[in-house]
Input
Amino acid sequence: MNGTNTEHRLGGHAMSHLIDQDIAHIRRVIPLSLAGDLGGPIIPATYWRQRLHGLLDTGHVNKSQLADIDSLLLMLDLHELNLAAAACADGSRTDIEGNDT
Output
């Protein structure tokens, strides 16, 4: 085995580890950032969606990571559906980020 293949594998392993760490971070902070306060979410769902799509765009996502990212995207979809349902129920006009329009 030559050094180039070893370096490439280590690079891929390091990238996979960074993606795992990013997914874990996003999973921890999404609920808190979307819950926000009376002014709405601290960080909107669109930001998290962009972060997750950025991970997908790396081209280094394995099957397990893809499943994790998919579940987080579904969590964001559910959050947005809940906001829309709440807005319909109370008759207010709220965008998908939870801001009054």
Residues 3-90 form one domain. The CA atoms of residues 83 and 96 lie 6 Å apart. Confidence is low (pLDDT under 50) at residues 1-7. The chain has one domain: 3-90.
